[in-house]
Design goal:
Shape: elongated
Protein name: Sigma-w pathway protein ysdB
Distance between the termini: 76 Å
Order of helices and strands: HHEEEEHHEH
Structural class: alpha+beta
Keywords: Membrane, Transmembrane, Transmembrane helix
Number of helices: 5
Organism: Bacillus selenitireducens (strain ATCC 700615 / DSM 15326 / MLS10)
Strand order of the largest sheet: 1-2-3-4-5
Number of domains: 1
Transmembrane segments: 6-27
Strand content: 15-25%
Amino acid sequence: MFHILLFRLLLMIAVAIIVFSITKYILDPRRKLESAKNRGDFYLLDDTENIRKNIDFTYKSALFEGEKFMDSLNAGPDVTTIMVWSEDIDDFQKMSLRDFQFMERELKLRYPEAVVEWRSPVREWIRRLERRGY
């Protein structure tokens, strides 16, 4: 009798662990970011409460990362600059100037005081698009 109760208890614990693991996997923001990247959607992963944490976002299957900076002279906790870059050159070269403007607007919605600065090689690609008039 004791063995049966112990077995049932262990079985319930195992089921609870499996349910917890599946729930944690489904709600994982990194998985949502990767899923949006595969679909080509815009998705922004950001902890607005923690300025030290970088921003990750995807748009049109390109993955970008942004570093937030705040003015050290200003007493407020406002983000003043966001430096954005991408590791994969091939992904963002399929984008137009309008796509980069869309991403800047999305970042400005969350951080209205921030200036978005694009790091190389994204910056060079945007300049090339501006010269071509795209």
